[in-house]
Fold:
Amino acid sequence: MRKKAFKTIREAAEDLLMRVSYVDVYGRRVGLTYKAIIAQLHILFPSGRTSLRSLRMIKCNLNRSQLLLPARRRSSKVLARDFARALLIALDKDNVLTAMDDKPRGYSLKRIAHAVRRKFPEYSMMSAEQLSGLSIYLSKQKFNLPPRPED
Structure:
């Protein structure tokens, strides 16, 4: 979380509701889960009592003001799969290109599985086999997948 000083829980909640966690394969902005937002609010305001209902009310007020809020997925399993799909089609910008291979490469399956486990600790069952199945699914859906380095 950014080091902002919020005077009220409402200000912090509005900021967290507007925050984008990642962009999925279809280009939709996906926001933080309500569970993650409530956990962050309890860290910022330990004596505050924020409920899921109050978060949803704040979200409704933001929607009425016609701000473009990021989408929220209800299941962490769906969130983890969407995040993995986004990484499967992304290019590895940290990958150093070698002299004999000047094509950019994607992330390795091992690195994607590690990133999913780090971002979604409650969903730690993402394996290389599941990721290869997701990549086959994406290629059948006509997504251009970058070549991957050998693990």
Observations:
- The radius of gyration is 18 Å.
